[in-house]
Automatic annotation (TrEMBL):
<dbReference type="Pfam" id="PF00486">
    <property type="entry name" value="Trans_reg_C"/>
</dbReference>
<dbReference type="InterPro" id="IPR011042">
    <property type="entry name" value="6-blade_b-propeller_TolB-like"/>
</dbReference>
<keyword id="KW-1133">Transmembrane helix</keyword>
<keyword id="KW-0238">DNA-binding</keyword>
<keyword id="KW-0472">Membrane</keyword>
<feature type="domain" description="OmpR/PhoB-type">
    <location>
        <begin position="8"/>
        <end position="106"/>
    </location>
</feature>
<dbReference type="InterPro" id="IPR001867">
    <property type="entry name" value="OmpR/PhoB-type_DNA-bd"/>
</dbReference>
<dbReference type="GO" id="GO:0006355">
    <property type="term" value="P:regulation of DNA-templated transcription"/>
</dbReference>
<dbReference type="InterPro" id="IPR016032">
    <property type="entry name" value="Sig_transdc_resp-reg_C-effctor"/>
</dbReference>
<protein>
    <recommendedName>
        <fullName>OmpR/PhoB-type domain-containing protein</fullName>
    </recommendedName>
</protein>
<feature type="transmembrane region" description="Helical">
    <location>
        <begin position="119"/>
        <end position="136"/>
    </location>
</feature>
<keyword id="KW-0812">Transmembrane</keyword>
<dbReference type="GO" id="GO:0000160">
    <property type="term" value="P:phosphorelay signal transduction system"/>
</dbReference>
<feature type="DNA-binding region" description="OmpR/PhoB-type">
    <location>
        <begin position="8"/>
        <end position="106"/>
    </location>
</feature>
<dbReference type="InterPro" id="IPR036388">
    <property type="entry name" value="WH-like_DNA-bd_sf"/>
</dbReference>
<dbReference type="GO" id="GO:0003677">
    <property type="term" value="F:DNA binding"/>
</dbReference>
Length: 676
């Protein structure tokens, strides 16, 4: 079989047809060309079908007599899985065997003997392919072949923001509440330029001058800093400033600044007149959120990240022609963008198709290829080295715990609940004996339950999600309504007895299953992003039965299809009847409610508990309902940290559950050395 496969012009893996000589894979009747190294990888796995192929064996087969890092193989596996329409979490073709390698799961089928006419056609095709490959050899390769990776910073704490210059490099070092600006000399020595309690970001180096943003809870400042002088503040704002860049003439400093709590604008500081003005786009469409901007020195394009709906888009804007020359879509999140090694390419750190890593993006063909898989870590920035022979990136590991707080502000111990990864979306069970929460401790996002008496943790769902957004338990305790993401956003019903999905429907954006009707016939689901609305879903079919705009936040059923919810047109809680389409106020008017989200309130038939947020802290308030718009409001718990993300409120236990995110304990700057 192995000998026949090595000489076969085609073979089949389940429903996939493979043509090795043509570098072509046919899936569901659609042909796709793949790069030669991807075909070598597939052929090797096919020749060893059913066997676990080690990473080193695969590297030796694909890159003989070369020193190649594992990341290059990971990229090819990602590309091959995409070509096969395979899912890494539920593989049909290529499975990952942790710490061992990869295995091809499906058996191989060889074609019957070809006729002479078929062979003539094949030889003609091969001639065309070889001619194309010969022509391709005349073009420069656009691959990033990684030779090795190594950390270049070694201090305890978080190191980030590396910039390279002709005479020195610089980066930030955050440790024990202070952020240091460090300079790395050409002789390999390091020295501290400044150290203070200001947090810092967006480091830029122009010749021998450093620019960066420093900020605290009340203001942001743009700072210019030369090695021989004290920091000079160019501009101060009460609104957050996030990203800096300079135009090609280096006369204008661009920066993004929040216009409100959601949207950002692009502004410019002139070194000539020292004035700040808004950057003007001469186009009809300007994204409401702009970030990660820089000028392409080769084409004079302004490249930046904007947000369309919920997802980031990379734009190439030509000021002179007032047009967007390209729009790159498909990313779930983007942490940084920079010019790539090759012409018309970008280097992107972020998540693409729910996979975190570093990506090479061709702005002409819109092709996105993986350079490095981040797995469970977060790559916050990636840039090319000055010599184009290295990629520098910042790698951070993040942890998020669930913490309980009583109404006197004291911590409550929850032993054995948290792992070393992320936990969140916590809420008490109806009997207050358990805490439900999501965790990615298994590699996927799943829902777990924590028993408050025994400290035992049990997995509830088996849905292999990339993220869990919200969930609600039925009144009989047998089913769970859950909104989650895989390669799409879905609302599903989970059988609690076995953790399996029994019904799903795709959503166009994230929604919140707030509560079930008392007879468990319906699910009240709210939407709080592109619009605010309350939906009444049939719990059996997951079809929408009714919808009411401007209603959300809570859904406490007080009668058949009658609920207590928040009316955003009135800014108060109301009793709303879906059949009569009538609303009756039950609370006083609550101004400034735009920050409220379903996990930040607790509502029953008589009162509501809400988290009130000011500029730097949270407060817990109780709202007493009445048969009018009067009612009253009482403050229960004073200020506590704004960075705490409230998960749920339990009046009976007089406790709060919130998630506590930890800054990266050991963020490091790492160099990927590339093959010339």
């Amino acid at each position: 079989m192995l000998e026949k496969l090595q000489t076969a012009s085609s073979y089949q893996i389940s429903q996939v047809k493979v043509y090795p000589d043509l570098n072509t894979i046919e899936v569901n009747g659609q042909s796709q060309r793949v790069e030669p190294k991807v075909m070598v990888l597939l052929n090797y796995l096919a020749q060893h079908q059913g066997e676990v192929c080690s990473k080193q064996c695969l590297i030796d087969a694909i890159w003989p007599n070369q020193i190649i890092a594992d990341e290059a193989l990971t990229r090819l596996i990602f590309v091959l899985r995409n070509a096969l329409k395979d899912d890494a979490k539920s593989p049909q073709y290529i499975a990952t065997v942790p710490k061992k390698g990869y295995v091809l799961l499906q058996p191989i089928t060889l074609p019957e003997q070809r006729s002479k006419k078929q062979l003539l056609i094949l030889f003609a095709s091969l001639f065309i392919v070889f001619a194309s490959l010969w022509a391709m050899q005349l073009q420069p390769s656009a691959e990033y072949n990684i030779i090795k990776s190594k950390p270049i910073t070694f201090q305890e704490g978080r190191e980030y923001g590396l910039v390279e210059g002709p005479n020195f490099s610089a980066y930030f070092h955050q440790y024990q509440g202070e952020t240091r600006l460090m300079v790395a000399e050409q002789d390999g020595s390091y020295r501290q330029l400044v150290s203070d309690e200001w947090q810092k970001r967006s480091l830029q180096l122009i010749k021998n001058t450093l620019f960066y943003v420093r900020f605290n809870d009340t203001e942001s400042q743009i700072v210019r800093h030369t090695l021989s002088a004290q920091p000079e503040v160019l501009f101060t704002s009460q609104r957050p400033i996030y990203h800096l860049s300079l135009n090609n003439e280096q006369q204008i400093l661009l920066f993004t600044q929040y216009n409100d709590t959601v949207n950002t604008g692009l502004y410019q500081y002139s070194f000539i007149d020292k004035q700040v003005s808004e950057f003007l786009f001469n186009t009809a469409y300007v994204p409401a959120v702009i970030d990660q901007h820089f000028y392409d020195t080769n084409t004079d394009k302004l490249i930046f990240v904007g947000v369309q709906g919920r997802f980031p888009v990379i734009y190439g804007y030509h000021s002179e022609n007032a047009i967007y020359q390209f729009e790159i879509k498909g990313f779930d999140s983007i942490n940084s963008i920079a010019l790539g090694k090759y012409e018309n390419t970008l280097l992107v750190a972020g998540s693409y198709q729910l996979t975190r890593g570093i990506w090479s993006v061709n702005t002409v063909s819109n092709e996105v290829t993986m350079l490095l898989n981040a797995n469970d870590d977060v790559i916050t920035a990636a840039t090319m080295g000055a010599d184009l022979q290295s990629v520098f990136y910042t790698l951070e590991s993040h942890r998020q715990d669930i913490v309980a707080l009583d109404w006197q502000g004291r911590n409550i111990n929850l032993p054995e609940l948290n792992s070393t990864l992320r936990e969140g979306r916590a809420q008490y069970s109806k009997d207050n004996a358990r805490i439900f929460f999501f965790s990615d401790r298994s590699g996927d996002s799943e829902l777990y339950q924590y028993h408050l008496n025994t400290y035992e943790v049990q997995q509830v769902t088996h849905i292999k999600a990339s993220a869990i957004w919200h969930y609600s338990l039925s009144n009989d305790g047998k089913h769970l309504a859950i909104v989650y993401s895989t390669d799409k956003i879905e609302l599903g019903i989970v059988d609690v007895s076995n953790g399996q999905l029994i019904q799903t429907t795709q959503l166009d954006e994230i929604k919140f299953p707030l509560a079930w009707s008392k007879d468990d016939q319906f699910i009240y689901v709210s939407e709080h992003r592109s619009q605010i609305a309350m939906y009444l879903y049939d719990s059996s079919s997951l079809t929408i039965k009714q919808k009411q705009a401007h209603l959300g936040l809570s859904a406490v059923e007080v009668a058949h299809k009658e609920i207590i919810a928040f009316d955003y047109t009135r800014d108060q809680f109301v009793r709303y009847n879906f059949d009569q389409k009538a609303a009756k106020p039950v609370s006083l008017v609550l101004p400034k409610t735009t920050h409220l989200a379903p996990h930040r309130v607790y509502v029953d038939e008589e009162l509501a508990y809400i988290i009130d947020t000011n500029d730097d802290s949270h407060r817990l308030d109780r709202i007493q309902f009445a048969e009018s718009s009067k009612g009253w409001r009482t403050r229960l718990l004073g200020e506590f940290n704004k960075k705490a993300r409230i998960q749920s409120i339990n009046p009976e236990q007089q406790t709060l559950l919130f998630s506590k995110g930890y800054s990266a304990q050991s963020g490091s700057i790492i160099e990927l050395e590339l093959q010339p």
